[in-house]
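To whoever is covering the structure queue this week,

Two jobs came back overnight. Logging them here so there's a record in the thread.

Job A:
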Amino acid sequence: MTVGQIIKEKRSEKGLTQKSLAESLNVSYQAVSRWENDEVEPSIDTLKSLAKIFECSLDELMGMSADKPAQKEEVKEEPVPQTVVVQQEPVLGVCESCKKVIHESSDYHIYEWKTHVGRIGHVDHKMILCADCMNKKQEEERRKKKAAESARRHGIDVRRVHSFVWPAILAIVLIAISITRFVAGDTNLGLGLLIGGILGYFFLADFILFNNVVPEVWVGIASKTVHLPGVIFSADLDGVIFLVVMKIFLMILGFLAGIALIVLATGIAGIISPFVYPVALSRSLKYTDDN
């Protein structure tokens, strides 16, 4: 029997898997597989460790008969098989990308990545790579990161363009209507539309840029819950009718309160938007300059 066949037989007798044996020896399971397939031979130190695990002699592990003491002595005196084994390079693993056999620790790398599952879950992955394949993976990651950053920067550039165009259209329409009101002699409405056009420009621009407090202020006020009182009623027909009427009334009241909160949020956000806009625009321009 070959050394590989003996290792496989002893491992099976001990009820060990290639992976568990590899973990005991601090090598990869591919190394154990290559030993058992007689592709490579383990070093003498590894053979000694295997003999301890299998609880057998080194001679038995190497296929040398131990029945006759004289023959056993002769085997010990013969250095040729042991010398050949010592010259064999240890196998640390096999690159899972290019299938290269890895002998040196500097060429042995563990590549780790995560696969997202659902919205918040993820699965961890690992693979053995040689130095060349590891460098290729890292270069690929850098290219993907650069592409994602470029796409994000492009998105901010487009957003900045939109923050000029659509607010300008809104402001022009409201200011044009306000001029017609001034011409018609309706000064109050004309003034209101003029102010609304100016504030509307900054409000909509801040919302499109979305890098400032204006959207937060608006959402914070507009999304507040209006707590309405409960209804006490008697358990008869008149009480049920009263309950239905009050529920409808409270529903309408809650709807009007929601509209009032939206109007209030728009008014407050609109007032602070002209002061926030220069900061928001500066942040948008600074991001592009820095990148």
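Job B:
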Amino acid sequence: MKEKSNLHFDTRSVHHPVLEMKADPSSTPIIQSSTFFLKDSAQGFEFAQSVQPSSFYTRWGNPTLEVLERVIADLEGGEAGLAFASGMAAISSTMLALLAPGDHLVASVSLYSGTKELINRDLRQLGVKIDFVDATNADNFAKACRSDTKVIYIETPDNPNMGITDIAVVAKVAKAKNIILAIDNTFASPAGQRPISLGADVVVHSATKYISGHSDVIAGLAVSSRALLDRIWRKHKVMGACLDPHAASLLLRGVKTLGLRMERQTHNAQKIAEFLQECSGVKAVYYPGLKSHPQHQIAAKQMLLFGAMISFDVGTKERGLRIVEKVKVARLGMSLGGVDSLIQHPASMTHSTLTDEELKQSGILPGLIRLSVGIENIDDLLADLKQALA
């Protein structure tokens, strides 16, 4: 930097040169800046009126975030992407952008507990009318939709029962009635399933999970058409649910190995599901890769990989809690999707905010265990489960 001799030391220590790179970096730079210098007031006005400008103010957008948003849009096959500070920020911003008081929402009865809480408490409080249906039977959506239905919302595979919804069939119902179909694709990830290619309008992710893959960041993502995403961005902007650029960089690093991780984790999960199916102390195993899964054929039709999430029923709450505390390789933890295996008891952990009636309605049994399978050696994982189940 050439010394600006006409400026004092204190001024020069604040004003740094703008970096100009002669070659492209191999990793996306972290633009850790809250604001950006403008050429003139006209540019300030232009950016303030623009949707998702990347070099104005990081709550509006940011260059590092823009790269992440373009990557996830490309991987999901959508027109545009949007990054959020968490998965729930992505879900809540999407719901609030697409629904108004008096609108009707049809949602899967089996959903992540945070999503269920948002729907049952906040959306109802805002005057949104809601019907929950068993999403494993796609015909239920045609029966539940009305003239005021604006959004259909599903998870597939769902959390924690691993139920599968036929996306193409539900998308056909939604399009015939001019309803927006939104899908939480967290469990499958874009490596395992691409709902937009099957007719979905909006895809949301808790990017904390498989897209990150390393349990070191909290983030959310949404992908849709440009028109719908503009509506979601406006809600995102005023709610302030922006992602930090450093967290976006961690996601960009994680997504580079998404395909490799999902292949290994799916392989491990298939082996474990087959093992659990033969265990005398296990009443039922829920994994879409098993031919015994009630929606296996649908999963085989729409999923590229069956994923790494397994649920299994060991009969009672007491036995479930004993098993999740006895494992040693898999660790007891609330999240999922990382390279390390995590196990938990939904009724007393992730879904404990639901009432007994809501747990029953969602099909969450007292003895249900949820296992997020990691990339560890399969022999170690099987031996660990064997000793815990003994």
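Note for Job B: The chain has a mean pLDDT of 94.

Please reply-all if you pick these up so we don't duplicate work.
Q.
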